[in-house]
Write a structure and sequence with these properties.
With 253 residues, the protein is of the alpha/beta class. It has 2 domains: 3-121 and 167-233, Spore Coat Polysaccharide Biosynthesis Protein SpsA, Chain A; 129-158. 35% of the residues lie in helices and 10% in strands. The chain is built from 9 helices and 5 strands. The protein has helices at residues 13-23, 65-81, 100-109, 124-127, 141-158, 182-190, 192-198, 209-215, 229-233, and strands at residues 3-9, 28-34, 51-53, 86-91, 179-180. A 5-stranded mixed sheet has the order 3-2-1-4-5, with helices on both faces. Helix 1 (13-23) links the parallel strand 1 (3-9) and strand 2 (28-34). Helix 2 packs across helix 6 (182-190). The radius of gyration is 19 Å and the shape is globular. 34% of the residues are buried.
């Protein structure tokens, strides 16, 4: 099977290179979006895999529509170079815990399934207006605090005029890391204009837009697991201890 690995990265580039090394096989093409905030040239290389970089990079901010824009740039670039059997969206902080041969066999056995994880629904993330999301985690306490105050003042006012919600659409939330077929990605790309418009003033909807598009489509019938969030997308993420840890046990701030 032919895979496209789509990687969102913004730091830890030595680990990113390790990730590339581990995915480096002829059946894997790798696409990398490096946050526009990163300056200078980041040296990355592969031997067997074709490596593509998104040139028109996005300045990605946590919780903001910019995350969705960056994902769509990866989706579009890989789709135009395809078709691929599966498109795997992952983080530059990820590492595979199974071999490439194991991953190949697993997707052959489950060919046609969509690996989109679903968790607790939080429709208010997108059905209400959320303002100034790019400043939620601004480094400056003054700027962050000023826009927090502005949200307190203005969000109740703008939400007096509710968003127009498409009839019959059920909003779903999950993990933004997915593995989808070519046909499913084609649908996600067909909804790009709507997604970038509707989720523009939303909150952390990189965990909502794909889940919503897939759920409200015939591809819902092909979802691998609708009940278990991380089993559904076949990602192993340990949130149980409350924060992430390095392999050595040192707590990451």
């Amino acid at each position: 099977m032919k895979f496209a690995y789509l990687i969102l990265a913004h730091h830890n580039f030595s680990q990113l290179q390790l990730l590339l090394n581990m995915l480096d096989e002829v059946e894997n093409d790798i696409y990398v979006h490096i946050d526009k905030k990163v300056k200078g040239t980041i040296s990355l290389n592969t031997v067997k895999s074709k490596l593509y970089r998104v040139e028109n990079r996005v300045n990605v901010t946590w919780g903001d529509i910019s995350q969705i824009k960056a994902e769509y740039r990866l989706f579009r670039m890989a789709f135009n170079n395809g078709p691929y059997d599966y498109y795997h969206l992952i983080s530059g902080d990820d590492l595979p815990i199974k071999s490439n041969d194991y991953i190949q066999d697993f997707f052959k056995q489950n060919n046609g399934k969509e690996f989109v994880g679903y968790g607790k629904d939080v429709p208010e993330r997108c059905t209400k207006y959320h303002l100034f999301t790019k400043y939620y985690r601004h480094k400056s306490r003054l700027i962050r605090g000023s826009f927090h105050l502005a949200r307190i003042i203005f969000e109740p006012i703008v939400n007096l005029f509710p968003k127009k919600i498409p009839d019959g659409v059920k909003f779903k939330k999950g993990a933004n890391w997915i593995s989808v077929t070519h046909n499913c990605l084609n649908l996600i790309l067909d909804k790009e204009k709507w997604a970038l418009s509707f989720f523009k003033r939303s909150y952390c909807c990189d965990e909502v837009f794909v889940q919503t598009i897939v759920w409200n489509s015939p591809f819902q019938e092909h979802i691998y697991d609708k009940e278990d969030l991380f089993h559904g997308c076949m990602r192993l993420i340990d949130w149980n201890r409350g924060s992430l840890y390095t392999w050595g046990g040192e707590k990451i701030s």
